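Wait, mind explaining this?

_____
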Amino acid sequence: MVRKSKGTWFRSRHLLKKSVRKKGMPPLSAMLRKYTIGDRVTVILEPSVQRGRPHRRFHGKTGTITGKRGKSYLITIKDMGREKLIISRPEHLRPQLQHADPKEAK
C-alpha cells in the first residue's frame, strides 16, 4: 500500500471554514492595519487569503511582533516551551484584546 501524503493543510476543513454570513474577502482595514514592534497580536487564519498564512498549528496563539519583512510581520510565539518565529501577513493577525483587571474595577 502507498502511504497517504499529509500536506500543510491536512485536516483543516473545519478550522478554515467561514460562516455563511462572513464568506468572501475580508475588509480592507484588516489588510491595511499597521502594527509596531512590541505589539501583542493573536494569529487568526483568514481562510479566503492563502498568501502569507502561517501554519495552522499557530491558529489562536498570541505572540509579540518583533519586526517587519516586506508586507509581512515577524511574530515571536511560545510553542511547546520554545520561542518560535513566524512570518505572517496582517490579514491573519488581530490585536490582542486588553481585558480590564477585575481588582481595579472595585
